[in-house]
Design goal:
single chain; 231 residues; alpha+beta; Deoxyribonuclease I, Chain A; 38% strand; globular
């Protein structure tokens, strides 16, 4: 599978042609796309149009929607959770969004080997851990910590169900400790990261085929990972 996390700048908002170009570039990088900073209705409209048909969008009422290529994946569940409320002049409300998907593979289903996979998209509060002078620094750090613990709890819920988890997004921190001891960071580029945690009896990450980051004309490169998963 190929997954990509792509932050398309919203503050200040990119010009419309650049938003569409970033979305089109992201669509070429993977079959699962995690977006951040998709704030306004016009962002959602432009990105869906630029990515083209063949994608289903989940949690697209949030700034962190997930796009899934329907040729390869069937969506079984979707949801979102508030991590913390925002603060004027510091941050909007912060959420995680997720989907549970299953590979579209007739043979695998016939052999009862098709296992589901949870995908979590995240965007942590900014300015908590960098060296820049920011207002409400302590508030930012406290909210960042709350977000981390709540996200860890959600990951554990999937793991306890026997569903492995691939997660990614903008962590707004260079060095982030693993959520669980057996977690693997699959790809990292500064504050953007993709990780994987195997559940007992769930899908296993057997090989990292490749990783990289690609300029999409936003202030973040899109970070992608091509991995092999096995039942």
């Amino acid at each position: 599978m190929k997954a990509v996390t792509s932050n398309i700048r919203d503050n200040p908002d990119l010009p419309r042609p650049k938003v569409r170009a970033a979305a089109a570039a992201t669509a070429r990088l993977g079959g699962i796309a995690l977006f951040q900073e998709i704030g306004e209705r016009e962002d959602h409209i432009d990105i869906k149009k630029a990515m083209g048909p063949g994608w289903t969008w989940r949690n697209d009422h949030l700034a962190i929607p997930i796009a899934v290529k329907t040729r390869y994946w069937q969506v079984l569940e979707e949801g979102f959770q508030l991590m913390h409320m925002g603060l004027a002049g510091a941050s909007p409300n912060r959420y995680i969004s997720w989907v549970v998907v299953k590979r579209r593979n007739r043979l695998a289903r016939m052999l009862k080997k098709a296992k589901s996979l949870a995908i979590i998209n995240t965007h942590f509060v900014s300015g908590a851990w960098n060296a820049k002078a920011k207002s409400n620094k302590q508030w930012r750090q406290q909210r960042w910590g709350e977000h981390y613990m709540l996200m860890r709890t959600k990951i554990l819920e999937f793991i306890e169900r026997g569903i492995s988890v691939l997660f990614g997004g903008d962590f707004n921190r260079d060095h982030v400790r693993p959520f669980l001891t057996d977690q693997r960071w699959v790809a990292q580029h500064g504050i953007d990261k993709i990780g994987f945690i195997e559940a007992p009896g769930g899908l296993r990450l057997t090989r990292v085929v490749g990783t990289g980051h690609t300029d999409t004309t936003s202030d973040h490169d899109a970070l992608w990972a091509d991995v092999t998963l096995a039942a």
